[in-house]
Structures are given as C-alpha cells and as structure tokens.
Please model this.
Amino acid sequence: MKAHEGMYIDGDWRPSVGTETIEVVNPADEQVIGVVPAATAEDVDTAVRAARAAFPGWSATPPAERAARITALRDALAARREEIAETVTAELGAPLGFARAVHADLPIAVAGTYAELAATHAFEEKIGNSTVLHEPVGVVGAITPWNYPLHQIVAKVAPALAAGCTIVLKPAEDTPLTAQLFAEAVHEAAVPAGVFNLVTGLGPVAGQALAEHEDVDLVSFTGSTAVGKQIGATAGAAVKRVALELGGKSANVILPSADLTRAVKTGVANVFANSGQTCSAWTRMLVDAARYDEAVELAAAAAAKYVPGDPQDDTTRLGPVVNAKQRDRVRGYIERGTAEGARVVAGGPEAPEGRETGYYVRPTVFADVTPGMTIAQEEIFGPVVTILKYEDEDDALRIANGTVYGLAGAVWAGDQDEAVAFARRLDTGQVDINGGAFNPLAPFGGYKQSGVGRELGPHGLAEYLQTKSLQL
Ligand code: NAP
Ligand code: MG
Model:
C-alpha cells in the first residue's frame, strides 16, 4: 500500500514537526502495510490555522461553485473505487465484495447527495418580517473511527463543505490510509488549499488537541461512548457546537405475525456484516416465546454459512476484526455471556479453525439471553448475535427500549401498519420496517446515549449551519 510520509495541510503534503509514526497493520495477516506520521499538538494547530485562513474565502464562495467542487470530489472518489475497496480491505479487514459495495459505493453516493444539496438548499428564508440567513458554523474538527473509515469521513466532510465550513480531520489510527486516499481525491477536485486538512495521529494526542482547540467552532465525533462523553464535556465548557455519533445496541423486533425465516436471516446478516463492527447493528434479536426455539435454530443455521476467511478472497463473507485489542474484547464478551448463563448455539470464544494468525473471531449466536445480561446491554462490536424471548408486545417494547442506547433497530410484522405502530413506540433514531432499504438521505443519529445530532441528507447539512435573522 502507498502511504504518504506527510499530512495534507493547506493544500500540500507536509511533514510533522515531530518524529512519531503509526504503523498500519493488516488484520488478516498481522503484517505492517504502511507507516504514517503521528501528529503533535503543534501540527494540529498548524492545520487549524490553515482552516481558519481559508474560511472567509470558502464561506463566501457561491453555493453553486461549492456544489461543483463536491461533484468533482464525488467523481474523484468514484474513479478510485477499486483502490478504496482494496485499501479498506487491507487496513480494516472487510471482505473485498463488501468493501466495494459498501465501503466505497456508500460514501460515493453520500458525496453525490451533498453536491446536490449544496446546489439546491435555500441558504436564505423569509419568516414574517425577517430574512433568515443560513451561515456556515466555521472551522470544523472532525474525529472519525475505523469501522466505516471512508463513509464516516464523507458523512462529515461533504456536508461541511456544502455548508461553507472548513475542516481539520483526525481519522482513526487503524485506518489512516483510506483517509490519505480521501485527501488525494479532495486535492484532485481542486478544493482550495486550507479548506480541507488531514492530520493523522493518536486520539489522546492529536484528537484531543483538535477537540480542545479554541479556534475550532464545531467538533463532530464518531466513536466510543467513553471518548464521546469527554469530548462533549470539553466542548460544553468552551461553549462550542458538538455532534456525537456513539454506540448502539439496537433491537431487531420480530413480531408474532412476521415472516420468521426472512427476519432471522436478515437479522443475522445485519450483525455479521463488517464482522459486527457497525454501530447501528441489530445485535439483540427479540422473538416471541412460541417461536423462540425455531428462531434459535434458524439463526444457528444462518451463522454456519459465515466461515471466517481471507478478506481478499471474493467469496469470503466474514473477515477478521480490526485489531488484537478488539479481538480480545469481543472474545471476553463471549466468555462473559457464557459465565452469566447464556447458551452458545454457534461460535464461541476460541480462534476459528485454521485462523490462528490474524484477528479472527468465530461468528457467535447466543440463546437464553435475558435483558439484564452484560451481552444484552453493552456494545460488543463483533460478530455476536443475542436472542431474547418476549411474552407479549409490551414486554417486547420494554426489552427493546431497555438499554442506554437508541441508534437504530428493525421491526418485522405480517402487516406494515402493525410494524410502523410498534416502531413509533421505540426510543431510537432509525427503524427499518420489514427489511426497508438503507436511505442515504434519511437522518442518522441517536436517541439517549447513542449521541447528539444527526448525519446525512438535509438534517446532516443543518448541523454545519447557524442562523442569522435580519429584521426588515
Ligand atoms: P475511540 O477510541 O472512541 O475512537 C474514535 C476516534 O476518536 C478515533 O479517531 C480515536 O483515535 C479518537 N480518540 C480516541 N481518544 C480520544 C481522545 N481522548 N480525544 C479525542 N479523540 C480521541 O474508539 P475505538 O477505541 O476505536 O473503539 C472502541 C469501542 O468504541 C468499540 O469497541 C466500539 O464499541 C466503539 N466504537 C463505536 C463506533 C461507532 O460508530 N459508534 C465506532 C468505533 C468504535 P485513535 O484511533 O487513535 O484511538
Ligand atoms: Mg481508541
């Protein structure tokens, strides 16, 4: 893999003032595939200054011209589709087919939606005797995780560009090569120097320096709840805007009238995609007592089709998890599930056969899970499905809403209206009804401790705008 020795700041690749570096590791074979600089607080400051200097020009650029640059960015990403997929496969371990269809194609689509929104959004509105201007918030500090490395970058940078903001991005230390590819695409799209800046580095050093920087107007963070709480506190103390996209423990509610086979198979696939490293994954499957045993059997049979394998191989459906720490964390949760009385019906904590090298985990299904168990409450972030039994609809609702999280979910019923009526009572930001397709324009974000703010579509654009009212 090609790695830049510098960081993309003020329109050029520049060396760090420090000497620390980060080794990028392929989780499938544990080999180092690249080395990138680890930014110091001084590097972050240089990047923020570049973003501040570029702000007056970019914010005054007509929306149609900003839209043209985002269109060019979309095209540059589309031209690199295969390179993006190969890079995500190499540094995250996502199977190549999934990397193409989701890790590359989704952000290309999202960039396209913001090219269109930049061109069509009404940046001025009339309310009574007022003209309300929608103005960019200013300099954005974006901190992203490794699980959907390009999507999470584009979901912040594209709306920020559309709004007229300038940006400093600190991507996850595990996936900096994808971020470097993105910076190359920004450069090719002729986005003016300083509008987008990339600092690769460690969370507690570069990430913290960015979140604390007094010249950053908005911090947009996606990642763990623990770090999110810290960033929220820092931003609150400085009275600056903050958006937090944190964890989830979403419920897949299968009502008694639902097509059980379809609901279970889709539910298992939803969790095992990306090796379970999806914040919106439906990790709790809720089934009525009468069909519980049948659902457990169906889920175990579905899991058997996910044989852990080399992500470069086109036929692989389940790759490794991102790093050794995540592997150990996921295995720890599997052990804890058994210790607390849940029953493993597929998988388990041991390394999969023949996969002792690489950060592999067995796709695991737990039955006899009760709502209070750790594996039913905490985000595992691995290929682990828990199946819970409910007595009636009110019981199902109480279980579904019974965690600190509320990011996503699913409801299945024989009749769409029945599923929708149940979904209205869920405390969560998104619900897929009977397998409804992902919509890149629908607002995405959390209720409760799953976060603050929304990404994607017009709601995602609004996060980067502030209003000024002129009374005439
Ligand atoms: P994380 O530490 O929260 O990482 C997210 C981003 O924040 C990374 O860029 C990280 O840098 C940075 N960061 C870390 N500490 C920071 C600090 N003190 N100040 C500012 N930025 C900081 O998450 P993780 O360690 O990668 O994963 C841990 C768990 O978080 C997972 O098991 C999962 O449960 C959850 N998670 C959730 C999501 C989601 O989409 N909601 C995504 C990823 C992880 P580094 O890369 O250097 O750590
Ligand atoms: Mg971390």
